[in-house]
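Consider this today:
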Amino acid sequence: MKVIIFYSCVFSFIALFESCLSTSPSEEFIQQSTDNYYEETPKGTLMYDFSDNETFDSFIEKFSLDSLFQESRVVFPLKKKYLNDNLKEVEKLVEAADWWRLVLEATDNYSMRYFENEKVNQGVVEFKGIENGISITYIFELKNGEWFLVEMKDLSS
């Protein structure tokens, strides 16, 4: 019984001592180790740093990762072509209120490729299905040095 009381007193003393410290030792260590840490990223280290020129490669990366940036770079109403139930190509306009975020990356179900045609200031992202009927094309235009999504073609069967 005396052993239990002794260990209880020791535990209580340690708990009381640690609660009197202004910061716990682990918080103090973290504070010291982050004193020289800066959150600012040096200019030119992000792939999509547009400080000088916006390349199609860097634009596609940012367009895929940043939903607010993506929405700002879609020309609404967006022209969308697709196949109806009779497999005839039809066109509709997508308004900003109906917009959904695009993730432009390949998966196990389809491959992705993108390229730029500098002669006509146009960029294209294509998705082709792997053993399925997926065929989607996104068409971008360069306007005043910035890329914009101007048309979408979903000719998947």
